[in-house]
Amino acid sequence: MSAGALLSYTVKPHPVTGVYSGKLGTWLFLASEVMLFGALFSAYVLLRVGAPHEGAAAWPTHEQAGLSWKIGGFNTLVLIISSVTMVMAWASLKTGDLAKGRMFLALTVALALLFIVVKLVFEYMPKLNAGHGPWHNNFFGIYFTLTGLHALHIIGGVIVIGYFLLFGHKLWYKNPEYYTNRIECTGLYWHFVDLVWIFLFPVLYLMN
Amino acid sequence: MGDAHADISKHVRAYIGVFVALAIATVVTVAASTVNFGGHWNMIVALVIALFKASLVAAIFMHLKWEKSVGIWWTLGICAIFFVALMSLPVLTSHDLPAESHQGTWDVLPAAAHGEAGHAKAAGH
User: Fold this and answer.
1) Which among A27, A29, A164, A159 has a CA at the least distance from the CA of A93?
2) What is the ipTM of this complex?
């Protein structure tokens, strides 16, 4: 089957996969993302279990690491709310309400930016100012890798959602169902980013 | 179209329900971390709550509850197998070799390689 024939299933389900092609492509991408974050979680467990009890490489307490469950918990709630606004954008488009859909997309972007600002101002900056960058020890190495990669995904989400909010919505006037499907795929990605944080929060901020 | 709207309003009710459940589960996660369950139980409790939250997000927000596509379920099934293998690596490496293996492959090594001294020596390389 040629690529053109596969790409034509933007709205109706493909007869073989049973779903429009963009959605299957998004799930394939998310499967690769599971392996990416899974590998890093696996590395975290190995480093944590193998850490010495004392010395420079010893695993720090939450106080030593400068990790506050209040900030982590706040950002958890921000991401959960952003997942709700994202899915509400799709639901609004499904009922034919573009204005409401775009309002929810704008709210999602605002919440994502709030997450990034809180992370930068209350987490990354104090650590970097104290000289506790990723080079400091194994803990800060894996902490910055895990949370930094997650933050990059948030920024990627802001770019994609921002595009559909400001420019991509023109597709709505030509093919509303296609636009709605694109928002559903973007939502799948966004919920996955939320899902990763659901595991990062207890592992980094609550376990010791 | 009317049916579609009715379906969507059902979805929206589910989204609000999941939001409340996720918020409560986050509070429970924090509260549970202040209790000392002993051993590895704090970690297990935290991960069980996280799995519950993740399942809600995947089932409702990501629409898997209503998903009938064979392609998507195959993708997820294969991904799950590889993910379990990946997460097994740290679990397996955090345990020592099983006793019976010492009478097999490791028997060909010099006696000094057995036991704690041997491990420490091997780790030094």
Assistant:
1) A164
2) 0.88
